Amino acid sequence: MAAHKEMPDFDVIIVGAGISGINFAYRIQESNPDLSYCILEARHEIGGTWSLFQYPGVRSDSDLYTFGFAWRPWTGKHSIADGSSIRQYLEDSAAQEGIDRRIRFSHKVNRLNWSSSSNMWTFDISTQDAKMISLRSRFVFLGTGYYDYQEPLRASIPGIHNFEGKVVHPQFWPVDLDYTNKRIVIIGSGATAITLLPSLTTRAAHVTMLQRSPTYIASLPSQGAFETIVSKVLPCFAANRVIRLKWMLFSFFMVSICRLFPRAAKSFLLRETAKLLPPDFNLEPDFVPSYNPWEQRLCFCPDGDFYACIRSGKGSVNTGMIETITASSVKLTSGKELHPDIIVTATGLKLCTAGGITITVDGEPYEISNHFAWRAAMVEGLPNLVLSWGYVDASWTLGADSTAQLASRLLTRMRKESVSAIVPRMMAEERQALEERPFLALKATYVKNGGNAFPKTASTGPWQPRSYFWRDVTIARWGDVKAGLEWLK
User: What is the mean pLDDT of the chain?
Assistant: First the structure.
């Protein structure tokens, strides 16, 4: 990057020591080893999501072969892994590459300001001991995820304040909660609820998943025969590559088939569901979704554990609308009543971009949601700042890595051409002609309600939303990085 009389503390500052931040740190070291960088992490440890979430049975909802890093393959036996194993994997990966030595824990970024006079970002940071410090960098990478770490989604549940038992949100699960022999109602039907049901039934008296509408839930072998055979036949390095490629292809073709042939995909998924439920079990109304596969995220349960606890009688699913919640019951509009000791509100996440950091440009407030995303990585009018987003129909890490490779390429080119700042700009004629598209192509309620947390995307040009990994990574490595991007020397 171009020299300047005002020197930054770092060339690059990464915010977040989760999947995205650690992967970006690796890509910097790989492509720009001379650049100085640090990682600012608000929490006390590595992990991000996998440090925050501590509810029973917390696990990935993507296979670990693609959720893991391309540069450090997942070698565990299980394709779907629990949260503690994932966090340990992240710690080991960061230690292997010396990334852990660059992390400053308990450093929460409150405010970011870009100065056009110095071509630098200034960070206002609060630390664990309540000190306020300031750092400056030329480039920023935000690996802050897509939801609010501080506040859960407050779903509108009539009468929830009346309940005299325990009400728990999975995002902040109490470590001392004893649910032994308790009756539990989980409100929600997403990946979290589907994880909680079999986990809670190991100790609870009975667990009911109460949903407004059903979700597609597919069983996935925790240990596949393909992976076992390949690992025995091929050398470790080759086996890891083949297994990762298999899962990438599996995800791509599964999503493509569901979208191209929705009726056939729906029929297949429902047939597989019927095989896992008790004999003569009626799929209606609890297991037949009203939408097509992948209009909302498809949920997986390893070795059919979700269905196993239903067959055992310890778990059940109930579809209906809540009329109200009393001191001791959940009343449905159908007239049915549930009598839980504990209610778990697994109703989604509160969406949030940039970790809730206040952003200003030359002192003027900047709102990301009012602007268009360039290559699903930068936002118009924001210089030298990249945000990391993953995929909704594949693993998060694949999307984060394509963004990290694009950012690394931009950094390399900036140095070679002595460029001080790059900033996305949309021409007036472009703006008039474009059609807006949703940033996340999902119909989940929490996504629809919180979609204005994200930048805008369009139907054409570099303003399009993400598509699929191979296209995105091809653009990241060799695609046009001039269109829509202003390079300032």
Answer: 93
Q: What are the sequence ranges of the domains in the chain? A: 10-150+350-488, 160-345
pTM score, whole prediction: 0.93
Distance CA 450, CA 380 (A): 21
- The one-character DSSP state at 455 is P
Tokens read off for 186: 């989980």
Phi and psi at residue 329, in whole multiples of 5°? -150, 165
How far is residue 262 from each of residues 274, 294, 355, measured CA to CA in Å? 18, 9, 35
Report, as an integer, the average pLDDT of 457-462.
90
Half-sphere exposure of 51 (CA within 13 A, CB side): 16
Q: How many whole angstroms separate alpha carbon 359 and alpha carbon 455?
A: 14
Q: Is 7 exposed, middle or buried (0-12, 13-18, 19+ CB in 10 A)?
A: exposed
Task: Give the position of tokens 């977040």.
Answer: 16
What is the CATH code for 160-345? 3.50.50.60
Matching CATH topology for 10-150+350-488 and 160-345?
A: yes
The fold of 10-150+350-488 is: FAD/NAD(P)-binding domain (3.50.50)
The pLDDT tens digits for 371-385 are 999 999 999 999 999
**How many Å apart are CA 350 and CA 149, to the nearest integer?**
9
**Per-position DSSP letters for 171-225, written without gaps between them:** GG--TT---TT-EEEEE--SHHHHHHHHHHTTTSSEEEEEESS---EEEE-SS-H
Which band of pLDDT confidence, cut at 50, 70 and 90, is reported for residue 154? Answer: confident
**Strands 166-168 and 132-142, bridge-based pairing:** unpaired
Position 3 confidence tier, pLDDT thresholds 50, 70, 90: very low
**Tokens representing 485?**
């991007």
Report the run of H or E that residue 424 belongs to, with start and end. strand 421-424
